[in-house]
Amino acid sequence: MGYDDLGQHFHRIGNLIEAVKAYGRMRDYCTTPSHVVIMNLRLISVSIDQGNWLAVQTNVQKLRSPGQQFAEAQRLTAKLSAAMGLALLASGNYKEAAQEFIDTDPRMIQARLDDPADEEAFNEVMTPNDIAVYGGLCALASMDRTDLQKQVLDNTKFRSYLELEPHIRRAIAFFVSSKYSPCLSILESYRSDYLLDIHLQQHLGELYFQIRSKAIQQYFIPFSCATLGALADAFDTDEQTIEQELTGMIKRGSLDARIDLVDRVLVANTVDARRKVHEHALQTAKDYERTAHLRILRMEIISAGLEVAEKAKVPGAGGVLESAGGDLYGGPSAGNFFGETVGRSLRSGLRG
To answer: Could you write out the three-class secondary structure of the chain?
Structure first.
């Protein structure tokens, strides 16, 4: 199709705005489902180069829409998962991005990266190695050890990608085994390489910070207190650096503890469970006593005939006249005035 060729030409020369316009005009001439799939894939590629991540997610959802099942799109599930994962990564939604990368079909691994005609290849955006790195780092930053074991290491789909980047698999295995120092050492050794990644470099600092924070949290869980020196040795750093990291984590609310700068100790904020149970029991007893008192008071009011009934309108009066307990003009009657007085007296007695 002419607009398809024109859009590819503009994309190759770097005129992304005109490429989007050309693919947009192509929509009116899509006569088969394969044309729709091709158009959306082209828009996804251009939107990724533009950094328009909302458009990427929109076009992926169009191909995934339950109301429009495209047979051609079923063969491109790996590309769609990779594109959606990249868009979520760029948006800072690391947990959902990890899930998309983990669920990516392994058929992309068998693709011939040097053959542009191969439908499974997505090398113009990312390679299977990139999926392993992105998915592994996002999973480390957003999942606990149980989820890492079940959804990442035991995942037959993602295991094929992890075999392409064995250091990521080793880092995840160390984290699951509570060997945090080797895990962080592996990641630090590849930091310079990841900083050269066009999609990962902006998020690498935040990802590494979240991974390290999770490691410190998991390490500190069994202890009520730990010296800063022991923490520094466990994470292969000095006391001043670990103190700054702990201070930042406490300020962000990711670590429920306090730092004793005199004794150089990190102390967990413990909760007295026994006291909490006693307070809850006393509050429950007070609520029950108040409810019982109000019910007894209502029974006494009814038995004494002090309950004020609702105003009943006289039939056939057109909603103007009322019964003997009401006023002709809708104002407060003597019965209502008496009821309000009794109610105020009762409420003041309860407050007293």
So the answer is: CHHHHHHHHHHHHCCHHHHHHHHHHHHHHCCCHHHHHHHHHHHHHHHHHHCCHHHHHHHHHHHHCCCCCCHHHHCCHHHHHHHHHHHHHHCCCHHHHHHHHHCCCHHHHHCCCCCCCCCCCCCCCCCHHHHHHHHHHHHHHHCCHHHHHHHHHCCHHHHHHHCCCHHHHHHHHHHHCCCHHHHHHHHHHCHHHHCCCCCCHHHHHHHHHHHHHHHHHHHHCCCCEEEHHHHHHHCCCCHHHHHHHHHHHHHHCCCCEEEECCCCEEEECCCCHHHHHHHHHHHHHHHHHHHHHHHHHHHHHHHCCCCCCCCCECCCCCCCCECCCCCCCCCCCHHHHHHHHHHHHHHHHHHC
Maximum average pLDDT range among 119-123, 293-297, 303-307, 311-315: 293-297
- The pTM of the full predicted model, rounded to 2 decimals, is 0.69
Return the pLDDT at 266: 85
Arithmetic mean of pLDDT over the chain: 79
d(CA 24, CA 7): 9
Please state, in angstroms and rounded to a whole number, the distance separating the CA atoms of residues 164 and 133: 9
- What per-residue confidence (pLDDT) applies to 88? 93
**What is the reported pLDDT for 246?**
86
Q: Average pLDDT for residues 148-173, to the nearest whole number?
A: 91
Q: How many residues does the chain have?
A: 352
- On the question of pLDDT at 320 being above 80, the answer is no
Q: Give 41-62 pLDDT, tens digit per residue.
A: 888 888 888 888 898 888 888 8
Q: Are 252 and 209 spatial neighbours (Cβ–Cβ below 8 Å)?
A: no
Q: Which of 83, 48, 49, 46 is nearest to 63 (CA)?
A: 83
